[in-house]
Amino acid sequence: MKILVGYKRVVDYNVRIQVKPDGTGVVTDGVKLSANPFDDIALEEALRLREKGVAEEVVVVGIGPADLTAHLRNGLAMGANRAIHVVAADAVQPLTAARVFLKLVEKEQPGLVILGKQAIDDDANQTGQMLAALWDRPQATFASKVDIAGGKATVTREVDAGLEVIEAELPAVITTDLRLNEPRFIKLPDIMKAKSKPIDTIEFGSLGVEAHDHLKTTHYAAPAKRSKGVMVKDAAELVAALKQKGLL
Amino acid sequence: MTIYKAPLDDLRFALFDVLGAEHTLTSLQGGEAHSRDLLDAVLEEAGRLSEQLLAPTNAPADAEGCRFDKAAHTVTTPKGFKEAFKAFAEGGWTGLTNPEAYGGQALPGVLGTATTEIFQSGNLAWSLYPLLSEGATHAMEQHGEEWQRERFMKPIVAGRWTGTMCLTEPQAGSDLGLLKTRAEPGAADAGGHPTYRISGTKIFISAGEHDLAENIVHLVLARLPDAPEGSRGISMFIVPKFKVGEDGSLGARNTVAAGAIEHKMGIHACSTCVMNFDGAEGYLIGKPHKGLAAMFTMMNAARLSVGVQGLALAERALQNSLNYARERLQSRALSGPKFPDKPADNLLVQPDVRRMLLTQRAFVEGSRALVLYTALQTDIEHRAIDEAARQKAGELVAFLIPIAKGMTTELAQECTKEALQIYGGHGYIAENGMEQFVRDARIITLYEGTTGIQAADLLGRKILQLQGVGARHFLQEIGAFCQQHGADASLRGLIGPLAAAAKEWSELTASLAKRVQANPEELGAAASDYLYYSGYVTLAYLWARSVAAAEAGSQSAAFKQAKRDTAAFYFARILPRTLVHKAAIEAGVATLPAID
Questions:
Q1: What is the pTM of this model?
Q2: DSSP for B307-319, written as a single string
Q3: Closest in A74, A187, A227 to B92, CB measured
Q4: Are B216 and B203 in contact (CB under 8 A)?
Q5: Fewer CB atoms inside 10 Å of the end CB: C or N, chain B?
């Protein structure tokens, strides 16, 4: 079995996000970029399945500009067999990303696609679900445990009410939650080996995917600063103040 | 609990922008693959390992310390150490700079220096276990026989075993000529290799006994029966904790054991042992009576690593004190509130707090440039294609090592002190973690040669005995830099003082040499101040280079501005310290009268 893993590059989770002065987005120049933490978990799970003999090949997929190569090498150093780089100058929205994955799924015929449940940049939490719908295959989202046997995935999902166990016929889409696993440390020799692993480059334009931006961004702004609080003498004054603000 | 984030941006800046390491490394023998993307990936992963695996163990391991079992002569290291060492070994980090033939990764020394900083910041006491091993492998690499490397070095490179360096004895510290441990010739072993029986007591042996690995290989300095007196009669021996068979299998326990572990001011989690050798079986490594010389070929690397320890501790202390100054709300700015919506302003509005932070930043980033500069010269010394380039780099290294060790470790005292100071009384409370940095830092001006030894090495050996050949290269380089950038607007205010300081440095050196010729006691009277003087001028040069590199680099505007601001601070407020040291040097030995 082959596993496709979505491997997105995002602003590192440690970075204090700053809005560009012109409000067109957040500052990414000179800012540390790294793998979406949920995608690291997705890759780790795929590698463990390969180590268990469930899968033979793990392919990481990234959609982004030409300099995404170093990021994909990181995925290869972690252990993926090869990488696919869909070269796209601009960021793609979830539906477009799902359509790109569908094209790759048709080409690669994986038994399993593992994606992060969301990326920490826009927190959309949509690509996996959309891909499953477009592909017309089962989905098991927010996975915190995955077992593969007999052509089925048994997945424990983290849901509002606690944990839920479902079965999904393969091929299927799984999206990862935080507690699924702890991604491994990369070994030095693997960093060097990654240099010679293949990265297939596909131009976004050649896929025949329509980049449909169904979301329009008007502008970005930092949350308003909290103004200084006022002290009230008693409950009555508090109620009066809240009423005055139209909150009661 | 203290924070730590590997300073990857500044490491990259120093390596690639200030020092141009990619160009240098890829042009060295065996360096074709050492491109920036590879080095970047290694730094990135070192950061992850240190932040996640080492940094959280720093405070708890200090509180727990090592435990010694008197009956079994065993040492138990603190919680988490074994796991961290296992991950470190499995990741291939134990053999980062060793040759591929012995299972290493053959990566550049300067990359090893950069990753060492990252690991030492994570947990200095832990980092000493692999550090001592690395020293032992380099000793075997340079002086061992092929069978010795196969049998004893390979398992250390693989991280299955560790190594030590056993030099010091109770009566022989800075003066190793006094050492007494004996080596008597014994029978040949099963493979026909001559053995020796080693007897004596060694003290202050870092990683002498522990539970991280299945065997420990001690490199021991001892005297053969026919040895001349003093330092010319010392040989080096390999003495394993467990004897090792021809096939590499572990055999019987050797008669070497830890007698005690020391209770120390800092680095509590490092097992510092008294080692008793009682007719222990060992093998001669290198030539008879040439052990001290062999040990000294590794001394440069060991001393540089200790210099890096100063930088590593100061970096983490700086990160925490900066964070604290940003978040701690006390008092108002002198010119009126800066955060009127808060109950008080943060500490950063206080010029005196900024002074303490800038002092740390100037020393940390300056020291980083210095140790990486020196490490890169070491790579050139060992692997440049051109013989003349190798020789020049070797001379530069010899000159810079006492500065990189002596200065960086002394500055770390000031940095950790200022970092603690920013916390006020809270810095004195163990829970906040700052006092551990102060305690841990205190060892680094002592081991691998005290600051006084570094100063004597710089002035006595590198300047006077070797006629300042390394210093001349360095001063020429500064002169060329000043000429090249004399007209740069961005370096206005820096080039003038730097050129003047370099000129004064060489004049001061010449006049001092004359005085020492007339009275050798002048050497000892001037050495420490000469070390500081040299260190401050060296950092001035590296700060000027950093500003030049920032102008040309692709970093963010804020990063570049911080470099310019810190350099300006350094030149205005730190470089003038040379005046004091110059005065002290010129005051001479007459101001140090006999004391009884």
A1: 0.93
A2: HHHHHHHHHHHHH
A3: A187
A4: no
A5: C
